[in-house]
Design goal:
Shape of chain A: globular
Helix content of chain A: 40-55%
Strand order of the largest sheet of chain A: 1-11-10-9-12-13
Structural class of chain A: alpha/beta
Distance between the termini of chain A: 81 Å
Number of strands of chain A: 14
Oligomer: homodimer
Strand content of chain A: 15-25%
């Protein structure tokens, strides 16, 4: 495996675009059609469709989709004490960081007698999807359920695929129990998304669906969110990615490990290194080879590395400019005085500062959310937070004197826009004063 | 014109669903295809396509799309003093309310030695679309440009359709000048959305597009936002709507005027009255007829009224429950002690409290934003605010001791999820300590 190396200064603008290009996302009409069929089936046949689809895709016959409270309680005994402690610590840190995100209500008098407010309201019913494809992802459950709980959602529904014996991964159940998830269902894939968007006999309908997943899950979220009678979705899907900025103070072994920890996510993952030192780039190349061989998921990581680039930059300032242009999901700044670079970072999902902050900390337990905008969406989307489980309601209340003062302004503007009934709604009130 | 009247208590659950059903949004494949063609044309041919499309749709030949600074400055002299004063007052109130929306940065130590932050960053380049179909909408320019300015967007691009003489409505230009809009272009319709999403020789590419518009504009926003290389959009489109809750203290003339001020927006607008008094419902029916005849836009309003419902409810509590189920874009509470009902309101875009607060105040100048979630999206979307022009970047920084404390937790969870390279990225650091 040889990763491409480029020198930024020697590239033309269009070559630079190419170097920073993401791998194209597969547009597969067969996936689209399969998902359309699954959604239509679940809408028409409810639980019966879920049962049949679960037999087909998960190879297990499920009679009762809801995981019982007893089963959730029993999950604890199936985990080791260190695993439980790790999950509890992660939950605690994510809770601490997200608790600081609560929005204060706004209450402003904009004109004497005209009071304007903004109130925060939780979404009532939300759906969390926790995949368990190559491995169960209890960390994903933490990253969604904790902000839902802090937001104050009344009903938090969680779906996770059943294992071959029909049970759900105990770490996911343990997290659900400790984070206020209301109900858990053993159903996965596009059928789980369809069930939460439209409801079935056993699965309640939700107004917004969160969570990662494979191409079928992502397509299902996209389809139900395009339907006004479906459910909203969290973030646009895309392959995971990391960009590392390193200067000569960084250790090659660490830089290579950081690049590979992203590459093992999937064959479509992308990793980019921006480095001021040619020597370090060479050393990283060697380390990548060595470390890759030792990885159980080396085939996936090796494939992902073919999408990846090592780029020589002239300065750290140039690295920051390139990074902002790329807008990475994860940005590791492994340089001297990394914190001083922070004010210049405009586009990034989450930033990992200094030599002692691997991405894994944020993926699991530093406290920040690991659901982040990828594929360049960091330019115009935020990672998951409490706000995405809430919405704002604005309020205005005019007194008689407030309407006397501001009503004529509204009348003038309504007239300017030829909206006579808008003007009249003010006039019928003013005339009675 | 006779508006349907229902008694909530006498309806079955499925009849209740029907009464609260929105008019179906037209799914018109011919619009979709026309918009696809326009977008492809603008992507391929840039300004030349814009010129040709503007000739075709706006019947004017535009040579230079950018509105000059001199032209923007001259707009002031084309407006009356009262119009200028009204626009200035609206801008000032919207600014006052939106200035209160700035998010504080978060800085939390979740574990000793592990510092987590959330920083706010403006979107760099945003596009505002201001339609001018049946009438120019300078108020829409205010509602988008003021939060963009408060958010700190570096480049705010505004597009508005040219009039038959090639100029842009002076009220829109006057607002642009006073709200920090960077550049203004005379181009409208789906072609304006395509130009902002992909860029042309004269129009810069933006990362997110805001603004109302007709079916072509809405479809274009939807298409470019589905393309990862396009631009994000603000809110899903839908027809405007109001729900009025009234008790016997409300005046029929006022209630009717409020219903009609929404109905005049478009034939697909929907208005709903929830009222505890049969007498008031009858009086409102009569008033609707009288006031409708006097409206210049009576044809539009009369058509919209056929989508509309007057509903008798048993109590104000029942009215609140029905309103939350409907999730109206605008909610007027014209009752005794309206403020006491506010805590029970869970789903609404914006609320207008008491007898002296017509929707027109919020549409123009109370200070709240008039870009609001319609069509039931108030369940899971907020109206426009400063946040939609910003994104959050999270940051974490571990010290050596922070990594010693929290690294093993990340290692345990990575192992639980079978992500060995994630574990290794921690280990290579811990081993060097």
């Amino acid at each position: 495996m040889k990763v491409s190396v480029f020198n930024w200064a020697e590239l033309s603008e269009s070559e630079r675009d190419t170097v920073l290009q993401r791998p194209a996302m597969v547009e597969d009409e067969s996936i689209r059609q399969a998902v359309r069929d699954i959604i239509a089936d679940v809408q028409a046949n409810g639980d019966a469709a879920l049962r049949e689809l679960t037999c087909r895709f998960d190879r297990v016959d499920i009679d009762r989709f809801e995981v019982t409270s007893e089963e959730i309680d029993a999950a604890k005994s199936l985990l080791t004490k260190p695993d439980r402690r790790a999950l509890k610590t992660a939950i605690a840190n994510v809770r601490t960081f997200h608790a600081a995100q609560s929005s204060d209500d706004i209450d402003v008098t904009t004109t004497p007698g005209v009071r304007c407010e903004r109130l925060t309201r939780p979404m009532e019913t939300v759906g969390l999807y926790v995949p368990a494809g190559t491995a169960p992802l209890p960390s994903a459950a933490i990253m969604m359920a904790v902000p839902a709980q802090i937001a104050g959602c009344t009903n938090t529904v969680l779906c996770a695929p059943p294992r071959s014996d029909g049970t759900v991964d105990p770490a996911i159940l343990y997290v659900a129990r400790r984070t206020g998830v209301t109900r858990v269902f053993r159903v996965g894939g596009a059928q789980a998304i369809a069930a939460m968007a439209y409801g079935t006999e056993s699965i309640p309908r939700v107004s917004k669906i969160f969570g990662p997943g494979n191409a079928f899950v992502a397509e299902a979220k996209s389809q139900v969110s395009a339907d006004p009678n479906g459910a909203a979705q969290d973030l646009p899907a895309g392959p995971s990615e990391v960009l590392v900025i390193a200067d000569e103070s960084a250790r090659a072994e660490v830089v290579a490990a950081d690049l590979l920890s992203q590459a093992e996510h999937g064959e479509d993952s992308q990793v980019v290194l921006l480095c001021t030192s040619s020597e370090l780039i060479e050393a990283v190349q060697t380390e990548l080879q060595t470390q890759l061989e030792a990885l159980p998921r080396s085939a996936i990581a090796a494939e992902a590395m073919t999408n990846s680039r090592l780029v020589r930059v002239a300065s750290i300032d140039e690295a920051i400019a390139v990074s902002n242009r790329y807008a990475p999901e994860h940005l590791i700044i492994n340089t001297r005085d990394a914190r001083s670079l922070l004010p210049a970072i405009t586009n990034a999902g989450s930033v990992f500062l200094g030599p002692w902050t691997p991405e894994s900390l944020g993926d699991y337990c530093s406290g920040t959310n690991h659901v982040l905008p990828t594929y360049g969406f960091a330019r115009n989307y935020s990672g998951l937070g409490v706000e995405q489980f809430q919405k704002f309601v604005t309020v205005q209340e005019a007194s008689e004197s407030g309407l006397r003062a501001l009503g004529p302004i509204a009348q003038t503007l309504a007239t300017l826009e030829n909206l006579d009934a808008h003007e009249r709604a003010v006039r019928v009130r003013l005339e009675s004063l």
